[in-house]
Write a structure and sequence with these properties.
By secondary structure, the chain is of the alpha/beta class. The protein has ten helices and ten strands. The chain has a domain of about 70 residues. The longest helix is centred in the C-terminal third of the chain and has 21 residues. The protein is globular, with a radius of gyration of 19 Å. The structure holds adenosine-5'-diphosphate and magnesium ion. InterPro entries: AAA+_ATPase, ABC_transporter-like_ATP-bd, ABC_transporter-like_CS, ABC_transporter_ATP-bind, P-loop_NTPase.
């Protein structure tokens, strides 16, 4: 098995003025190359923390993050990160926004610009290169943000609730578009979402986390019939409901075992 991403016994402790919070405890995870994995779990279970560690933005307090066989020491061009908010600069055109990643990496070349234009086209934004972000709808802006992430040609995409601010119809369209685009390019993806149906419809594997402290709770492999269908088709399939129900139950149980407050303070742990 070719694992492109690995978390090895990773823990993360945040230390503020007078307290330490164990945000993630002893988490191990592997993501196979070209696969789509979703992380679900209650608010505060460490999803964003896990993505930040995978992105190399946050060094684990304990354990290792391995990308393509190497322990990562910091942010890498192999990994792209897309957030819930599109963070397009309002004073830049769509093309210039899409080129930002290449620019920051010192790679704004003719070739890079051509590739970015072709991505804009592929994601239905051909003809909008010179428009400003405020002239676009939320769904179009999020597509522009996806182009910006893909333009640097990362192997892995980390997606933190990228569809959650969108209207239902747009969100469903984007799920299809994102899944088919990433699949056709052979990208590996890790999606964080609070929407269980979205996780079930888009992923090969769904990992459920519990909180207090954030930790692994369980994992579901999505059957091939659903995996191979586009998310909108998957949602209509008969097997879909039972997968959704299992995920729902697991999430409920993880919540019960996790506790109600946010995070776990180290100094309040029983010794
Ligand atoms: P999620 O994305 O699943 O909602 P987070 O990764 O944002 O969870 O947070 C996990 C836990 O770590 C929470 O208890 C949160 O309050 C805490 N936490 C997150 N970021 C920080 C930080 N910078 N400093 C202190 N605590 C933090
Ligand atoms: Mg989060």
């Amino acid at each position: 098995m070719d694992n492109v991403l690995e978390l090895r016994n990773v823990s993360q402790v945040y230390v503020n003025d007078s307290r330490a919070t164990l945000a993630v405890e002893d988490l191990s995870l592997t993501v196979e190359r070209g696969s789509f994995l979703s992380l679900v779990g209650p608010s505060g279970c460490g999803k964003t923390t896990i993505l930040s560690m995978l992105a190399g933005l946050l060094k684990p307090t304990k354990g290792e993050v391995v990308v393509g066989g190497e322990i990562i020491q910091g942010p890498s061009a192999r990994i792209g990160y897309m957030l819930q908010h599109d963070y397009l600069f309002p004073w830049r055109t769509i093309l210039d926004n899409a080129l930002l990643g290449l620019e920051l990496g010192g790679r704004r070349t003719e070739q890079g610009i051509d590739y970015t234009r072709s991505l804009l086209h592929e994601l239905g934004l051909g003809g909008f290169e010179k428009r400003m972000p405020h002239e676009l709808s939320g769904g179009m802006r999020q597509r522009a943000a996806l182009v910006r992430t893909l333009a640097t040609e990362p192997d892995v995409l980390l997606l933190d609730e990228p569809f959650s601010a969108l209207d239902m119809g747009i969100k469903l369209q984007l799920e299809d578009l994102v899944q088919s685009t990433l699949r056709s390019k052979g990208k590996t993806a890790v999606l964080v979402t609070h929407d269980l149906a979205e996780a079930a419809a888009m992923s090969d594997q769904v990992v459920v986390l519990a909180r207090n402290p954030g930790r692994y709770y369980g994992s579901f492999l999505i059957p091939p019939s659903i995996r191979d269908a586009l998310p909108t088709e998957a949602r209509r399939m008969r097997e879909f409901q039972s997968i959704f129900d299992s995920l729902w139950r697991s999430l409920e149980e993880s919540g019960e075992k996790g506790g109600a407050s946010h995070g776990q303070e180290l100094d309040s742990r029983p010794s």
